[in-house]
Amino acid sequence: MRADARDNRMRILSAAEDVFGRSPAASTDEVAKLAEVGIATVFRHFPTKVALLEAVLTQRLERLRDRALELADSDDAGLAFFGFFSQVVAESASKLAIAEALSASGTVAGDEAKAAGQGMREAFGSLLDRAQQAGAVRRDAAFPEVYALLVGASRGATATGLESDARDRMLALLYDGLRTGTS
Amino acid sequence: MRADARDNRMRILSAAEDVFGRSPAASTDEVAKLAEVGIATVFRHFPTKVALLEAVLTQRLERLRDRALELADSDDAGLAFFGFFSQVVAESASKLAIAEALSASGTVAGDEAKAAGQGMREAFGSLLDRAQQAGAVRRDAAFPEVYALLVGASRGATATGLESDARDRMLALLYDGLRTGTS
């Protein structure tokens, strides 16, 4: 891909994340406008709205995975784990809107989005391991239930329209539960 | 409604809860078979599948509300609160399947289901108040975040396909967080 084509692709993805994150039913036209490219350029990169939605979802999951991998080198394993958890929950409303738009179009996530999701889960699992080894998270908490809490906190906050201060209090409750018995 | 018509209606609702809870895309025909009534009888009571789904959802929410109201008289306010929380999460997979079938049909919950949902939330709020007064749940946990945790635990467990032992461990983590600082 030539440099200007790559640049266009990134602008379209970034605009699509913004537009569909706010309003999943928005049109590809709105994405083209925000990205300041012609609609033909959007369709050249993403032949359908579903293809565009999938690319946006994949990009978000990859970004979260990269963030988790970055944090895995952090000195404070507890801070890294809880910081990542909070970030996923804070960003979940627009991510869920995009996933919902995909499922409303009758599509399930494609292979790329699935692989990115798997990468994110694994990176989150490493953060959990390190936080447990450092004594910041209780050792009797296994991955399946901690991951269910991450997904659940995201969906619960979004489904009930939680304000950000209540979301912080919700996370504080959860984190106390995850720390119980560590000290 | 005559007694036999009432009886038929209850059998249809109970069969529909079973059938759609397992498989939201199931047909009204399967409901009629399980209820051992003719398909015409189903349509006499519920003209459309959407009407039937709404009635099932309303019935479930009313049943949960009634259970919460019953528990509000219990001597052990902590046990009542945590017991109800666990029951909602344990029953959530089939309830979410029914809600999903409704939303897949492009319908939002009607007035009856909404009123039943509101009644359930209020009854849950009373259980929380009593558990806090009894010192079984921390007093700095406000309703919005505790309710988001109830919804979130249900959705997280369902979305990640949590086994029942992992679900119990997830709830134990949550409950420790809700109890922190009470003793």
Characterization of the model:
2 copies of one chain form a homodimer. Chain A has 183 residues and is mostly helical. Chain A folds into 2 domains: 1-47, Arc Repressor Mutant, subunit A (Orthogonal Bundle), CATH 1.10.10.60; 58-179, Orthogonal Bundle (Tetracycline Repressor, domain 2). Helices cover 77% and strands 0% of the residues of chain A. The model of chain A has no long low-confidence stretch (mean pLDDT 91). Chain A has 9 helices and no strands. Chain A is elongated and about 60 Å long. Chain A has helices at residues 3-22, 28-35, 39-45, 49-71, 77-90, 92-104, 111-133, 143-159, 164-179.
In short:
Chains A, B: It holds the Pfam family TetR_N. Chains A, B: Keywords: DNA-binding, Transcription, Transcription regulation. The structure is a homodimer of 183-residue chains. With 183 residues, chain A is mainly α.
Silhouette of chain A: elongated
Tally of distinct domains of chain A = 2
Distance between the termini of chain A: 54 Å
Rg result of chain A = 18 Å
Fill in the CATH topology of the largest domain in chain A.
Tetracycline Repressor, domain 2
Question: Which helices and strands appear, and what pairs or packs with what?
Answer:
The structure is a homodimer of 183-residue chains.
Chain A: H1 3-22, H2 28-35, H3 39-45, H4 49-71, H5 77-90, H6 92-104, H7 111-133, H8 143-159, H9 164-179
Helix pairs in contact in A: 1-2, 1-4, 1-6, 4-5, 4-6, 4-7, 5-7, 5-8, 8-9
